[in-house]
Amino acid sequence: MQKVKALQADTSDFSSFHQIVIERRTLHPDDVAIDIKYCGICHSDIAQVEGIGTAFQHPVVPGHEITGIVSAIGSDVTEFKPGDRVGVGCFIDSCGKCKYCLAGQEQFCEKGFVSVFNTPDYDGNITQGGYSQSVVVKQHFVLHIPDNLSLSLAAPLLCAGITTYNPLKRYGINGNSNIAIIGLGGLGHIAVQFARRLGANVTVLGHSESKRSEAAQFGASNYEILQDENDFDRLSNKYDFILNTAAVKLDLDNYLKLLTVNGIFCFVGLTMDEQQFNIFSIFDKQGTITVSNVGGIAMTQEMLDFAAKNDVKPKIEMISIDDVPSAYQRILDSDVHYRFVIDMSTLK
Questions:
Q1: Per-residue DSSP letters for 152-211?
Q2: Looking at the structure, do residues 262 and 326 belong to the same domain, yes or no?
Q3: Which domain holds residue 28?
Q4: How far is CA 305 from the centre of its chain?
Q5: Are 177 and 238 a contacting pair, CB within 8 Å?
Q6: What percent of the chain is helix, strand and coil (3-state, nearest 5)?
Q7: 42 assigned to some structural domain
Q8: How many domains does the structure of the chain reveal?
Q9: Which of 44-58, 71-85, 245-259, 283-297 has the lowest mean pLDDT?
Q10: pLDDT tens for residues 144-192?
Q11: For the whole prediction, is pTM greater than 0.90?
């Protein structure tokens, strides 16, 4: 066992964060030990600290956008060596035997994947995340970070990046696609970059002028403000794919007007609020409403390689470990452009 420092929340109150010492397991033959350099903050970290849902518990060491350097490897590890630049995303184990694992979709493991934090590992211990100095992970679930992609910028890609890249690839977005992205936040600004690099004509759908110039900087060809019924009518039957990155309740019937025949409306921004729509909003165009999960390990590696090759870069604000409680509140107040990343060297 190795003892390392970490940041833990004891309750749903953000002020309960404090530094503690946790234990990381002794390396198994197929394990990789990683010195953590950066960890991104995701809205789902906040959801678990706040205790939304019945599956989450306290205390909790969050963090699932982890980048760092390999410090040691188990005797059976062949894909990594000490000194390699690596990342760890949303999950760190699965059965490896079911049809989904064998298809490279570990996120749908029939046994249940093991999340990087706050879930029972297969040995019964509760996993502890990336707000810490180091982590030990099975080789299969460790990702190579390309040399031309900085570790700090790579961190948000391990959740926000794969969350947006996966549906774009799944639905074949390419140079013939005319798509719209709802929201230009932590997910949306990355989605715009991926969609544009895949060749699509990209429109950002916003509710004010405030992000028009930034949408263009990220690669959007158009920026449309939707405030009333006339705005939706003006854009009806225009987009063959709409990606919703906003975690809010939508007037779905109006947004569904915007789809072309056989158009697809896909959720990646999730809210606890119930979403409702009239079936006739999609009947006349044979539309599809769907949702996308994160991607498997192979898809995540593909995403990282694509981002490095095509200069997809999250816009981040670097913070220290002491800034985490205020960063959580700023995310809830929509006061971040666009992702917080923790410099883990500040954990002392």
A1: HHHHHIIIIIHHHHHHHHHTT--TT-EEEEE--STTHHHHHHHHHHTT-EEEEEESSGGG
A2: no
A3: 2-144+315-346
A4: 16
A5: no
A6: 30, 30, 40
A7: yes
A8: 2
A9: 44-58
A10: 999 999 999 999 999 999 999 999 999 999 999 999 999 999 999 999 9
A11: yes
